[in-house]
From TrEMBL:
<keyword id="KW-0808">Transferase</keyword>
<comment type="similarity">
    <text>Belongs to the PEP-utilizing enzyme family.</text>
</comment>
<dbReference type="InterPro" id="IPR006318">
    <property type="entry name" value="PTS_EI-like"/>
</dbReference>
<dbReference type="Pfam" id="PF02896">
    <property type="entry name" value="PEP-utilizers_C"/>
</dbReference>
<keyword id="KW-0963">Cytoplasm</keyword>
<dbReference type="InterPro" id="IPR050499">
    <property type="entry name" value="PEP-utilizing_PTS_enzyme"/>
</dbReference>
<keyword id="KW-0479">Metal-binding</keyword>
<protein>
    <recommendedName>
        <fullName>phosphoenolpyruvate--protein phosphotransferase</fullName>
        <ecNumber>2.7.3.9</ecNumber>
    </recommendedName>
</protein>
<dbReference type="InterPro" id="IPR000121">
    <property type="entry name" value="PEP_util_C"/>
</dbReference>
<dbReference type="InterPro" id="IPR015813">
    <property type="entry name" value="Pyrv/PenolPyrv_kinase-like_dom"/>
</dbReference>
<feature type="domain" description="GAF">
    <location>
        <begin position="17"/>
        <end position="164"/>
    </location>
</feature>
<dbReference type="InterPro" id="IPR036637">
    <property type="entry name" value="Phosphohistidine_dom_sf"/>
</dbReference>
<dbReference type="GO" id="GO:0009401">
    <property type="term" value="P:phosphoenolpyruvate-dependent sugar phosphotransferase system"/>
</dbReference>
<keyword id="KW-0460">Magnesium</keyword>
<dbReference type="GO" id="GO:0046872">
    <property type="term" value="F:metal ion binding"/>
</dbReference>
<dbReference type="InterPro" id="IPR008279">
    <property type="entry name" value="PEP-util_enz_mobile_dom"/>
</dbReference>
<dbReference type="GO" id="GO:0005737">
    <property type="term" value="C:cytoplasm"/>
</dbReference>
Amino acid sequence: MLDVLRRIVQEVNSARTLEAALSTMVRRIRKAMRTDVCSFYLFDVNQQRLVLNDTIGLHSRAVGQVSLRLGEGLVGLVGQREEPLNLEDAPSHPLFRYFEETGEERYSSFLGVPIIHQRRMLGVLVVQQQDKRRFDEGDEAFLVTMAAQLAGVLAHALATGGLSRTNRGDGQAMFTGVATSPGMVIGEALVIAPPADLDNVPDLIPTDVDYEIQRLKQAIYRVRDEIRAAGERLASRISAQELALFEVYQEMLSEAALGQEVEKRIREGQWAPGALADVVRRHVQYLERVDDNYLRERAADIRDLGRRVLAHLQEETPQTPDTFAERTVLVGDEISVATLGEVPRDKLAGLVSVRGSSTSHVAIIARAMDIPAVLGMVDLPLPRLNGAKVVLDGHRGRLFVRPSADIESHYRSLIAEEDALSAVLEHEQDLPSETPDGYAMPLMVNTGLAVDAVASLKPRISGVGLYRTEVPFMITERFPGEQEQVRLYRDQLESFAPLPVVMRTLDIGGDKDLPYFPIDEANPFLGWRGIRVTLDHPEVLMVQLRAMLKASEGLDNLQVLLPMVTNVDEVDDALRLLDRALQEIAEEGVSVPRPKVGVMLEVPATLYQLAPLAERVDFFSVGSNDLTQYLLAVDRNNPRVAELYDACHPAVLAALDRLAKDSAALQMPVSLCGELAGDPAGALLLMGMGFDALSMNAPSLPRVRAAIRRVPLAAAQTLVSETLALESPAKVRAHLATRLGEWQLAHLLPPRD
């Protein structure tokens, strides 16, 4: 049965249209389960009804005509309950509803399962049989699995406008991911396909068919020449049988084979790269299903040839500034920083990526550039989004594809409100971050990029609360040398002097890999990362510490922060290396005072070791993002559990409150850097708890400053007491919104639904 399932999924995913996919699905399921009927009902959101969309076994005239409300009939019951329904004698069920046009009066057995995508019920899949039988557990499991597969197909069809039969041409779809950089934008999607990736070639209608055919032929000729040359180079080193493979490649590339099929697809209305991808995928999927081992192995050959030809086609289709819309939303499987740099800054309006996380390099740059970004959008159907109008909501991690007029109008209003608010808040950014009752709340900034834009904030901040030293490591092809690091760190320290600059030692691992130092682990967030890596590679840490110390000469504003600390032994080891670095540079004639050293509190174990840690270091810095995900056991970069990740979870807030009080008792300064600090409501809570400083991304500063200047410390402390008594994140968020509304600060919060 598993093999049957795999084959059906392959056929469905290779279908060119939704109608073809559904037709394949219902026919193959009926055959696999040996039933008389298989039907698919699509949930029409506008009508709030389940509509018969395809069937094999019922009368075809019923398609598009039969519909049921949720809870109406057996199909409506499955949709309402969102759980399978397995009946031996369906007509005897009290909710059985008979539709004469279907001809289903002769069927007794009924098995229906809901189709659910990201908690949204999209439709119902049904099988029926004339004989009375209760479908067994294997049948039910099979149909549930098929429904789960169909959910992805439907999500793709929503994005491509393929549901016109019931959506009246609306075609709007919403996809969710990890909210990475706040903000909202209405723009045009530009899909960036990775080089020679056959699965991510966008569909485009050719403007010049003859030109597309000509460049296809040229690409094929070039690949044939490459293969011929490769065969000649290896002729004396491989056997005649192996050499014959090169002849097979040449035959596959002949105009009578691959070239002819691709040309036909171009004439049907597809540009050369898309036509090539279509033909290659079809051949590969067919070959992978056959029983002959030799033919199955040829699938890899076809795929390889396709990539080679595609690589040459893509060389001739570079993206120039003329190809970018005025508000370009860059969409891709994985967007690199290099790709980001190819888009004119004045046209780049947003970022969306299937892969990536809130701490990836491109995410850090997006926040620094104040560009809305949503990453980790795993169900995004890339090939058919190019050129589509989209609404990107970086606050809630949403992408609306081909938005309805109401959605577009709603977001235009929200964007106008945000722009007006930014203009108002700008007027008070040089004023002190001080409450109405005279309490000064230091605000610091997170950095990691060049200091150009951030350094202009110097009059408005109390220093750099977190300088991510890993960013320079991520944009090179090797570990940067000591002198390179000295120059980078000196720029930061000089630009912000005499304000303190907290430099975190290299924090890689988890979701932050270096291309030249990959870390491949089954569970990277609980693996080799942060201080664990650098202590295992003291040669890397020593170079970094020496560079930091040398860069601080004559400035005395360096502070060093140790990430991902789990126990005091790690701190002791790191401090010994710091002392050794001080001694080594002194021997070179560089004399600097020992900088203050802090521990990043992000592993829950450290919350129970504050006293021994306080004996060793000078300050604490809470990494609220990691601490939250570890306390809640939620990967913050996984969109499937993103709703569970919430820094306002009562357990997280209780831990932070206790941490602040324990740190005060130890007379240990404690700051917090993370998303919670950049949330106006979160910042008020942290101030009320007693945190000594808050560090955030630069775009968050105006709203946080505005909140602090309008709420007395006593009111913030009361807010903490009220909030800690609540029992769920939803109640916490609702209470915070209510309080900020009473203080006339609701406009500082991200827009709500």
